[in-house]
Structures are given as structure tokens and as C-alpha cells.
Amino acid sequence: MLLTFFSLAALSLQVVCTSAQVVVNGQIFTNGLAIIDSPAPSSTLHAGSTTSVAIDVSGDGKLTPDAEAPSSTQSTHYDLLEVYLTSPEVNLTVSQGPGLLQQEQGSTVKHINWVIDTCIKSGNYNLTVYETSHIQDQPYFTITPLPISIENSNPTSSCTAQSNSVQPLPQTQSSLATSPWLDGSQTSIVPYPSATASNAFRGVACLWEGLVVAVGVVYLTYWV
After folding, report:
1. Fewer C-beta within 10 Å: the chain N or C terminus?
2. Which range is the signal sequence, renumbered to this chain (predicted)?
């Protein structure tokens, strides 16, 4: 019975915790419409420097420019695209509101020249992309955590200007199981994301959720 229990627990973990975000030829395909071009996962960034955040909003050329507008009549389009620096203790604005989708009209890639504030302490973080969109007329809310680390040998005062309420982890989302732009024929696919502070927290949550499901399955199988 013990072997059966852990077998079911493992199965439960796969069901609850599977993340289909993948890196294909250097691009991060989220479970939504957006494709992150930079920075790369697990990059080490430095406080006080400027980092380019680049997001392909064209679906690798499959979407027309009017799909970037929330008022779009296309069956597949963006409603909102925002970026935050997050961890279990931090939630700082990188890009908030409709500006990211509205800038660089005609460009398939949107860029943020992110000045990393010197108030940010050294540590592991997620550069988290929040996407609200419609895909084939169905609404979705997709959260993509991009693991990064920040080095800062001399942090200044606490971050207040762009600070937001810390969200409980894991956050609830309603997304596709995988990117709508992947057809399974790609050959250079690498699993993503890797563990950082908040992803490690997610791993603990997944383990707990999986064990709860497994206990329920075993109980129903053997005692009901």
C-alpha cells in the first residue's frame, strides 16, 4: 500500500504542478500569447544598471498588430500586459498599465529599459509577466515567472516608490496548458522555469497539494 501511495502521490504532482513554459531557441514561450526574448532565465543582473526586457507580442509573427489593442475585434488578442519584480517578500512595478502594449507602434517586440533600483537587495527574484488576453474568444489570465538574480553590494533605502502589496504564492491563474504557438515539432526545447525563491515556494505548495490529492485517492480506493 505504501508503494501505491507514493506512486499516486507522484502522479498527483504531475497533474497539479506541470508547467509547460519552455525555452525554444532562446525564446521563452509562455502559456499565453507573449514570448519573452530577454533577459534569459537565471540571468544575474546588477542594481543600478539598465536591463532590456523584450517581449514578442506577435506570436512569432502569427498575430496582426491590431491584436495588441484591448478594443480589438480579433478572436485572439491582448487585454493587458504588465511586468513586476516579485519574490515572497517583494512586489515592485517594472511596467504597469496599458503603456507596454501601446508603445512602439508597428513593432512586433515591445521593450522596457528597466533601471534596476539600488534599493533592491541581493537575492533571487522573478521577473513576472502578467498577461490578460482572449484566445479564440476565451478569456485567459497567464502568469509567467522568469527567474533572475540581482547583485547589490550597497543597497540604499527601502523600495517604496514602485512597491505594491505582496501577493500570496502560488497565485491563481487561468491559462492554457502550453503556448498556443508551439506545435510539438520544435527540437531545442528546454524545460522552464527553474527554481528561485518564489518558484521554490511553489514547489512546496505543489508537494502539499499533490500529497493531499494522493491521500484522497488512496482513501477512496481502499477505505470507501
Report:
1. C
2. 1-20
Residues 154, 97 share a domain: yes
Residues 77 and 13 in one domain: no
Claim to verify: residue 50 and residue 149 sit in the same structural domain: yes
Angular region, 181: left φ>0, alpha ψ -120 to 50, beta rest: alpha
Max distance between CA atoms of the chain, in angstroms, equals 62
Note the pLDDT tens digit of each residue in 172-205: 888 888 899 987 665 445 554 443 444 433 443 4
What is the rounded CA–CA span in Å between residue 109 and residue 7?
Answer: 44
- Indicate if 158 and 105 belong to the same structural domain: yes
**Which residue type is seen at 144?**
T
Distance CA 111, CA 33 (A): 16
Q: Are 187 and 155 in contact (CB under 8 A)?
A: no
**Integer Cα distance of 144 and 30 in angstroms:** 6
